[in-house]
UniProtKB/TrEMBL annotation:
This is Histidine kinase. Keywords: Kinase, Membrane, Transferase, Transmembrane, Transmembrane helix. PANTHER family: SENSOR HISTIDINE KINASE YPDA. The chain crosses the membrane at residues 12-32, 38-57, 78-102, 108-132. The keyword Transmembrane helix applies. GO terms for molecular function: phosphorelay sensor kinase activity. InterPro entries: Bact_2-comp_sensor_kinase (IPR050640), HATPase_C_sf (IPR036890), Sig_transdc_His_kin_internal (IPR010559). It comes from the Bacteria. One of its GO terms (cellular component) is membrane. Pfam families: His_kinase.
Length: 345
């Protein structure tokens, strides 16, 4: 529907603009400069030809996404295109005048052609300015809408995370397990308290930003796994493999932790003997690949929870089609969650 409206607006502006321009030139030529009546016809035909050239110009802009290019790259392309369109358009106009015997070919000269090309270049400059301005305004509005949607999704993700983590049952288990360590292993108890504090602080603060360094996310995931290990004890085995080069890349907050929480809550905790969770993070061909493999099986026809839905939405808004998320049964004993994100500094 939006594309239909944009096309309707585009063609309306095109027809009105070039018809008005051609009619104005025809009136000036016939009534002011006393040109032959056929001059009006050649002007209208030339105007139709300019409409065609400007439409081809617009298709090139769309096909090669000039609107998305940096300004310094766009300017050179636009100026060259304007000059070529103006030159071709005026040569066509002169050819029509000769064809309809309005002027003789001897009456034309390089200075006259140059002046005509400059005049048409000014017209095309205005055309380009209007076209790019409309698209820049539309893109700015779209980015603003996406930013608002991202903030809303981050808030929802924060609430979902807090519900999973900061609830009486979770805190009770953590504190109860840490309390039992106070006598047995005071150093481990202090570490547990620090990990719980860091994780809760991260949960509260992550909604303030759209991206965090992968290194920070990994630290919080380590704390979460250590706390869950205290609770599940020998029922939870885990491993974490991170390619060092990926630690400096930014990613949406709570991505890895959400996958780990989901794996433990819906996979390992459901198994009487527990299971394992393996986290592997690497970079391949400019893509950060995050894989979380855990014991368990996906239930058929089960609707994904709000956390996974938010994850998909956040990836789509942040990276469009450049990011992806999949959750599948790897085999009969384990589940594999995979997130692919562009490696952007």
């Amino acid at each position: 529907m939006k594309n239909d409206l944009n096309n309707k607006l585009y063609w309306t502006l095109q027809l009105v603009a070039w018809t008005t321009y051609s009619a104005f030139n025809a009136i000036i030529g016939v009534f002011v400069y006393k040109s032959k009546p056929l001059f009006a016809l050649t002007t209208l035909i030339a105007g139709a030809f300019m409409l065609l050239l400007s439409h081809i110009y617009r298709d090139i802009i769309k096909r090669y996404k000039w609107v998305s290019l940096p300004i310094y790259k766009t300017v050179g392309r636009v100026l060259l295109s304007i000059f070529l369109i103006a030159a071709i358009g005026q040569l066509m106009n002169f050819a029509l005048m000769v064809l309809f015997k309005i002027y003789r070919i001897e009456e034309f000269s390089i200075p006259i052609l140059a002046i005509s090309v400059v005049q048409m270049s000014i017209v095309m400059m205005l055309w380009s300015l209007i076209y790019f301005s409309i698209h820049y305004v539309q893109r700015y509005k779209a980015e603003e809408i996406n930013r608002w949607r991202m903030e809303a999704l981050l808030k929802e993700a924060e609430l979902a995370t807090l519900k999973a983590q900061i609830n009486p049952h979770f805190i009770f288990n953590c504190l109860n397990n840490i309390r039992s360590l106070v006598v047995e292993d005071q150093e481990k108890a202090r570490t547990g308290i620090t990990q719980l504090s860091d994780m809760l602080r991260y949960s509260f603060q992550h909604s303030q930003v759209e991206k965090v360094l992968l290194e920070k996310e990994v630290e919080v995931v380590k704390s979460f796994l250590q706390l869950e290990s205290i609770h599940l004890e020998e029922r939870l085995a885990h491993s974490l493999s991170v390619q060092p080069e990926t630690l400096g890349y930014p990613i949406p907050p709570m991505v890895i932790q959400l996958l780990v929480e989901n794996a433990i809550k819906h996979g390992i905790s459901k198994l009487p003997k527990g299971g394992y969770i393996n986290i592997d993070i690497k970079e391949r061909s400019g893509i950060i690949i995050i894989e979380v493999e855990n014991s368990g099986q996906l239930k058929e026809n089960k609707t994904p929870g709000i956390g996974l839905k938010n994850l998909r939405d956040r990836l789509r808004i942040s990276y469009s089609d450049a990011a992806s998320f999949t959750l599948v049964n790897k085999d009969e004993t384990c589940v594999l969650a995979t997130v692919k994100i562009p490696a952007q500094q």
